[in-house]
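FAQ

Q: What does a record look like?
A: Structure on top, sequence underneath. For example:
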């Protein structure tokens, strides 16, 4: 067919030998990218004129497509940084530096790995100036480090601060918590540097314009984020006073992302009878962070955790990774589990960035790799080899039974999406544990935006019988998962599926409550699509198309309370 052996080999490596259609599609894409079209040629000439090599430009265009010049430039800058780190390694070995910049750069990091400094800085009791110095030595800007310490609190560890910075960087295009990184120059080409500075200035102006339109008021989340208490910490609050309108039954339990736009949690609290949110990070229950806010009217004394305790560090959860884990990767916890995973291209790029170094790679390469590992929750599975978590592993971290999301023809992509939007079962079960003695004969549950049944699984693992569950969930995939779990666990109660919250009007609710005896608990976590920082397009708060479904939760809860009061 006229394709070169190199292109064929590359296509087979990316797609496997069995899928000929994908291989052919890749080959056609490669050929299209290398055609000397006038637009393609102008684009290549543009970046070559900035000082990048033609080979590097072709590779970046192939990865990102011709239409996204910002992504092409970011890729080229990444390539340049990695390319320049190789001679840096040789200069360290020989003791000679070719420029004043490289010499001062290495001097800045001369004590980076010393055990005494590391212990002092990693210590939560270290002062803020030391942490600021340490973060800037890692390559983060002083502005990033300062904002991270302000948001996370002065007692935060270095690992928590770097996780916060990486999470904010993922959301930067939409949320813009930080200015663009104040990077040191990594090349001596004035033309390339000038174009980079112009691009950087443009990004900065967009950020400043947005920040000028924002109120300075921000939600200061608690640190540590343990709510009224968690099993692993000694500080516990066992009494609180609820507003009279909030006192149950029925009990309610609402969850959403903690790091929502300004004013969101005040609105949520106001619509849910002025109950103050309980903010909890699931890193206290498992090996992955998951910062969430919970508004509920449950008792808070006599809580107890699910047993056995789940693994709480990466190495406890995945002991085989210990063999390959490099000493310069300080992570002990994973970041929040997302709805998608890192690509094969990314993991291959990381492998290539590391393979030239027998010992520890330069700090610039370490920072690049660690940033990607934190963003995408990559774990070490071989020498210089990282991989994303498998769906079964995500299930385990979130407290679901093995293969909970498998079966029924569900795709791998849908499994990650469903899991990324779910509850962390151990966290939710700890809060719901107070219901076990209150409902020994079983519970009637109204589960709104059920997802894959996190609340149902939590109650089942607490050995609270599920008498009746009305599960409202838009996704057919998720409804099938819950139905399959219900059957596999031999539930004796009644499961009712409803695909749309709009179907739950007063008449339908009254019919269900009269038939099954009312609802003891109303659980829900409305979609966070317009709240989460990782949403790059429509972070519109509770006015967003998806997240405005929160008001349906409030509407339905009010109806349940009114019908319950009338029936009494």
């Amino acid at each position: 067919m006229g394709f070169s052996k190199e292109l064929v080999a590359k296509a087979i490596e990316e797609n496997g030998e069995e899928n000929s259609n994908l291989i052919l599609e890749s080959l056609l894409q490669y050929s299209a990218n290398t055609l000397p079209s006038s637009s393609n040629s102008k684009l290549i000439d543009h970046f070559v004129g900035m000082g990048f090599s033609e080979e590097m430009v072709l590779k970046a265009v192939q990865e990102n497509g011709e239409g996204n010049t910002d992504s092409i430039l970011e890729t080229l800058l990444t390539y340049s940084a990695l390319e320049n780190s190789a001679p840096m390694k040789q200069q360290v070995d020989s003791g000679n530096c070719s420029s004043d910049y490289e010499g001062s750069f290495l001097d800045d990091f001369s004590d980076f790995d010393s055990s005494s400094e590391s212990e002092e800085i990693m210590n939560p009791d270290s002062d803020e100036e030391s942490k600021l110095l340490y973060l800037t030595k890692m390559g983060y800007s002083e502005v990033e480090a300062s904002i991270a310490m302000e948001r996370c609190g002065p007692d935060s560890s270095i690992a928590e601060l770097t996780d916060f910075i990486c999470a904010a960087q993922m959301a930067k295009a939409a949320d813009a918590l930080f200015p663009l990184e104040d990077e040191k120059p990594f090349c001596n080409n004035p033309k390339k540097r000038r174009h980079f500075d112009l691009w950087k200035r443009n990004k900065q102006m967009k950020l400043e314009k947005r920040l000028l339109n924002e109120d300075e008021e921000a939600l200061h989340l608690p640190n540590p984020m343990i709510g009224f208490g968690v099993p692993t910490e000694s500080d516990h609050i066992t009494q609180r006073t609820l507003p009279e309108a909030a006192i149950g039954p029925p009990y309610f339990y609402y969850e959403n992302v903690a790091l929502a736009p300004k004013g969101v949690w005040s609105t949520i609290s106001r619509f849910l009878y002025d109950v103050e949110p309980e903010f909890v990070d699931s890193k206290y229950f498992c090996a992955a962070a998951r910062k969430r806010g919970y508004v509920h009217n449950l008792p808070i004394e006599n809580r107890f955790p699910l047993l056995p305790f789940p693994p709480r560090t990466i190495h406890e959860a995945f002991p085989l990774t210990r063999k390959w884990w490099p000493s310069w990767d300080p992570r002990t916890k994973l970041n929040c589990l997302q709805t998608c995973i890192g690509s094969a291209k990314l993991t291959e790029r990381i492998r290539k960035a590391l393979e030239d170094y027998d010992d520890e790679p330069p700090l610039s390469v370490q920072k690049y790799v660690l940033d990607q590992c934190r963003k995408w929750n990559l774990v070490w599975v071989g020498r210089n080899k990282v991989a994303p978590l498998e769906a079964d592993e995500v299930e385990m971290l979130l407290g679901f039974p093995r293969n909970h999301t498998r079966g029924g023809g569900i795709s791998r992509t849908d499994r990650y999406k469903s899991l990324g939007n779910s509850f962390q079962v151990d966290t939710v079960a700890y809060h719901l544990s107070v219901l076990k003695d209150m409902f020994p004969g079983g519970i009637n549950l109204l589960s709104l935006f059920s997802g894959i049944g996190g609340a149902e699984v939590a109650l089942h693992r607490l050995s609270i019988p599920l008498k009746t569950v009305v599960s409202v969930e838009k996704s057919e995939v998720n409804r099938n998962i819950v139905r399959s779990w219900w059957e596999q666990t031999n539930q004796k109660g009644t499961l009712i599926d409803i695909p749309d919250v709009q179907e739950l009007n007063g008449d339908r609710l009254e019919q269900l409550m009269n038939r099954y005896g009312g609802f003891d608990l109303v659980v829900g976590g409305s979609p966070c699509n317009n709240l989460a920082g990782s949403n790059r397009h429509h972070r519109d708060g509770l006015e967003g198309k998806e997240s405005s479904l929160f008001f349906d939760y409030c509407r339905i809860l009010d109806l349940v309370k009114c019908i319950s009061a009338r029936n009494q």
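Q: Is there anything notable about this one?
A: Residues 69-94 form the longest helix (26 residues).
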